[in-house]
Amino acid sequence: MFSFKKSTVPAVAALLMALTIPAGALAEEAGVAATAEPAAKSAAKPAKKAAAKKHAKKGAKPAAKVKTVAKAPAAADKGAAKPAVKAAVQEPAKEAAKAPAKEVAKEAAKEPARDQDKDALKEVSDLQKEQQQRELAQQSQHPANVAVLRVNGSVITKLDMDRALKVMLAQSQVKQPLAPEAQKEAEAAVLEQLTSVELLYQEATKLEIPDLDKQVTDKVSQNRSKFKTDEEFIDALKSVDMTMQDMQDFTRKDIVINNFIEQKFTAKAAATDAEAKKFYEDNKDAYFKLPEAVRASHILVGADAKATPEERKRAKEKAEALLKRVKAGEDFAAIAKAESSCPSASQGGDLGAFGRGEMVPAFEKAAFGMKTGEVSGVVESEFGYHIIKVTDRQEAGAEKFENVKEKITDFLKKQKVQQEITSLVEQLKKTAKIQKD
Where are the beta strands (DSSP E) in 303-400? Predict the structure, then answer.
């Protein structure tokens, strides 16, 4: 099946986005819990589903959803045969660029709520003034603050390289320290990325952004607001060798580059229906296959491995009595809510969709052997006794083009943007003055 999880924004812009240190990454690096209530609420949903299925399957594998997309196209994987360390360095940058440039620019330009943001902006402003005085002195004395590369006169320092490498390796969970040869390879990859970012930024500055300073301040304020105190925010920055000035500089570059990408490429990108259809036909077998799956609800009368023979007997008798009620026409979901011992009872026994190999054998055999709307007899498993109702089926086959057309079109547009920017960066490199120190 087809997935759009892989980044379609070029690595040069992706690296920059990684270096702006989103609040989540800052919190992870510093070991600080940033406030993320919306994400927590979202994460709670699959947790409930997993808990519901725990009683009916082994290994807690995630359920395969009917008509979902889950695989990246080969077209996005060109050049995948890069050295392992280089790939590890670049992958976090790709992940950081999942949000389209348009959305990043929109988010940065959102008008803050007046009262709350005035306080937040003043807080950040005061914090900046206080910090920057110390930072200027500290950075000038930093042992890594030596030039390693100059791009049209702009200096990339060893500190820049080390910081980028540290963030990316941490995000990709690569064990450190690296072996000497791997370290050299990783540093070379990071320098290549930083060079490309600088060239793209220099080109992007040719486009004026009237409210750029305000956008930078707002974005920094948003990142600061994810932390409880100024000290936690500063500590998070320090953990990745960043200062408030660095944060402002990287944020500025992020906004400038994304504005450039949006205006020059994203807004003009287009993909025809014919192109989408061709992509679908060329990749149907590889990416658009749908496995056989069923959606089912169940009523569980629990009796696990610790249950005595007498307890299992009583559980079976209760299950048989409940089955008679279902057969007599009582509402299946209502009985499940009142009688099932599975956490799925709160959803009327609904377990969602699942494929073969996800449920315990006895449960799977019964579910896949039934028609939509059919109710099983009492099915015994190591969890107890189940009454299963199949509510939907998906036969193995290819996803319909109409169901994925919009996503394919969007993917192809982003792929074209990536190709355009990659081509631009390569052209800029040909005329740039790049000197190693």
Answer: 350-355, 375-381, 384-394, 397-398
Residue 260 in tokens: 């450039």
CATH for 291-395 (3.40.50.300, 3.40.80.10, 3.90.550.10, 3.10.50.40): 3.10.50.40
Q: Is the pLDDT of residue 388 over 80?
A: yes
Mean pLDDT in residue range 161-168: 84
Cβ neighbours of residue 294 closer than 8 Å, sequence gap 6 or more: 353, 354, 367, 368, 370, 390, 392, 393, 394
Nearest partner of 170 among 8, 396, 19, judged by Cα: 19
Whole-structure pTM value: 0.55
Beta bridge mates, 393: 294
Q: Which two tokens stand for residue 110?
A: 């959102």
Q: Provide the token pair at 374.
A: 């059919």
In the chain, CATH 1.10.4030.10 covers 11-50+78-273+410-436
Q: What pLDDT score does 13 carry?
A: 39
3-state secondary structure of 56: coil
First to last CA, the chain: 48
In the chain, CATH 3.10.50.40 covers 291-395
Per-residue confidence (pLDDT) for residue 28, from 0 to 100: 37
Phi-psi region of 349 (alpha: psi -120 to 50; beta: other; left: phi over 0): left
pLDDT in tens, 171-224: 778 887 889 999 999 999 999 999 999 999 999 999 999 999 999 999 999 989
Distance CA 343, CA 190 (A): 48
Return the closest-CA partner of residue 13 out of 79, 98, 86.
98
What is the chain's mean pLDDT, rounded?
75
DSSP code per residue over 108-135? HHPPPPHHHHHHHHHHHHHHHHHHHHHH
In the block, tokens 């932390």 appear at 227
CATH of domain 11-50+78-273+410-436: 1.10.4030.10
Contact (Cβ atoms closer than 8 angstroms) between residue 381 and residue 300: no
The confidence score (pLDDT) of residue 397 equals 86
The answer on pLDDT for 110 being more than 70 is no
| Contact assessment for residue 109 and residue 215, using Cβ atoms and an 8 Å cutoff | yes
Query: What is the token pair recorded at 355?
Result: 């494929």
